[in-house]
Write a sequence for this structure.
């Protein structure tokens, strides 16, 4: 028999080479090449799923727009991230670390849809029917409209979808699905691409939303070809720390909504429970006031979130001081420390600085700058900041306090939680009307904020 032709394919980017390479020339990753058989691609004579369609170029003015209502899940945090609900015919890729709650969240979501009379198909490629039933019992999921199948064959899954015609489909996970038409192993780049493309094709033609669960690598990226994220309509990541109960659902790509929205959940024995007021959740651990602590009004998408910044400044006997930050960009912290030394005259060159956002949440927006400087200054001077004060604002290299977006909803959230004073950029204060229950203190420079606080 003639020897089968093989080539080596990078499992990260899809680069092909005739021999094994230690480092991929395409994505510069190490040890990602896997040997696969060469398969001659044939042009199909007809539609691979049996749909008799013929694409004809049509003027855009003659195309009739199809306005369909979104499918509401009933979990407000999930609907918020998707942009108001599930779009019919969309393909959503859900990623996250092992054990973070991907399968739990999707099973709870599908249970909500099934309880509303929707027919749901849950395809489990990693667990048996009994294991899925055990998870469902723990989550109190029980609905005759929720159909579960333990299958890894792509052809069998496509047949089940066309036979059942469900309102939504979950495939957990895409790396376990394989097609018998390809000789490569499940999880390889060719299998993942083939399974995703055929599920995408079916979702568009039957207007069935499909949710794909994707494994992540040790770097935190979804395993498999990068083209997978380009093929789907929405990419969701579930983030969270192992030592904290909260989980954050974040959209990094969304063709039908904003990518700035987040959903906050709390992991309990009964599953993931949505957190309606994240500010109260992240500030619930505040006890007696101490130096180096300040509350900052941040923004995630259209939602204001109040978090507690904690700083610790201590002298160091070593020549190079440490700058450690958790939840904030360390490079930004180093820049703000340089601004403090130059504009405020605070000597920090021989001090270690440790900065942390309580609760383990990450904040990446310009409004955190003023909070970082206030926390570091409070710890350096060993003076308390009034616990009823909230701050936000962007800091320039000249020490000026610049305006930020959505300042009014930040202040309203602070007033709702009982804060009495708010230090904000003068530019934002001049454009804002007085808000009942909270005093607005506008500052143009960092030095003005320090004079007010200390």
């Amino acid at each position: 028999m003639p020897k089968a032709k093989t080539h080596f394919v990078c499992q990260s980017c899809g680069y092909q080479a005739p021999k094994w390479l230690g480092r991929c020339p395409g994505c510069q990753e190490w040890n990602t090449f896997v040997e696969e058989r060469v398969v001659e691609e044939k042009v199909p004579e007809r539609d691979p799923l049996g749909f008799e369609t013929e694409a004809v170029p049509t003027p855009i003015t003659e195309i009739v727009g199809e306005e369909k209502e979104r499918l509401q899940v009933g979990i407000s945090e999930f609907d918020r991230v998707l942009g108001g609900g599930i779009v019919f015919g969309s393909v959503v890729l859900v990623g996250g670390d092992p054990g973070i709650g991907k399968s739990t969240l999707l099973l709870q979501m599908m249970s909500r849809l099934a309880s509303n009379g929707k027919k749901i198909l849950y395809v489990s490629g990693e667990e048996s029917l009994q294991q899925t039933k055990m998870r469902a019992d723990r989550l109190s999921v029980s609905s005759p409209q929720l159909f579960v199948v333990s299958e890894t064959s792509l052809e069998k899954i496509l047949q089940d979808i066309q036979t059942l015609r469900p309102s939504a489909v979950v495939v957990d996970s895409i790396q376990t699905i394989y097609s018998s038409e390809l000789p490569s192993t499940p999880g390889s780049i060719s299998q993942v691409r083939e399974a995703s493309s055929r599920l995408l094709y079916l979702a568009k033609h039957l207007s069935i939303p499909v949710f794909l669960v994707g494994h992540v690598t040790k770097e935190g990226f979804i395993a498999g070809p990068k083209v997978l994220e380009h093929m789907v309509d929405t990419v969701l990541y579930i983030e969270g720390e192992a030592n904290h109960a909260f989980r954050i659902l974040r959209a990094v790509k969304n063709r039908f909504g904003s990518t700035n929205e987040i959903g906050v959940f709390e992991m309990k024995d009964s599953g993931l429970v949505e957190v309606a007021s994240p500010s109260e959740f992240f500030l619930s651990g505040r006890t007696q006031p101490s130096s180096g602590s300040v509350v900052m009004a941040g923004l995630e998408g259209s939602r204001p979130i109040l978090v507690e910044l904690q700083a610790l400044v201590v002298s160091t006997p070593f020549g190079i001081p440490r700058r450690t930050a958790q939840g904030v960009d360390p490079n930004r912290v180093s820049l703000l420390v340089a601004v403090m030394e130059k504009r405020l005259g605070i000597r920090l060159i021989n001090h270690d600085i440790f900065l942390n956002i309580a609760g383990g949440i990450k904040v990446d927006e310009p409004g955190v700058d003023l909070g970082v400087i206030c926390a570091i200054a409070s710890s350096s001077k060993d003076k308390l900041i009034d616990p009823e004060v909230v701050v936000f604002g962007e800091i320039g290299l000249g020490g000026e306090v610049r305006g930020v977006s959505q300042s009014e909803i930040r202040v309203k959230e602070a007033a709702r939680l009982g804060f009495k004073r708010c230090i904000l950029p003068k530019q934002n204060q001049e454009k804002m009307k007085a808000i009942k229950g909270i005093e607005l203190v506008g500052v143009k420079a960092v030095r003005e904020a320090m004079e007010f606080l200390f």
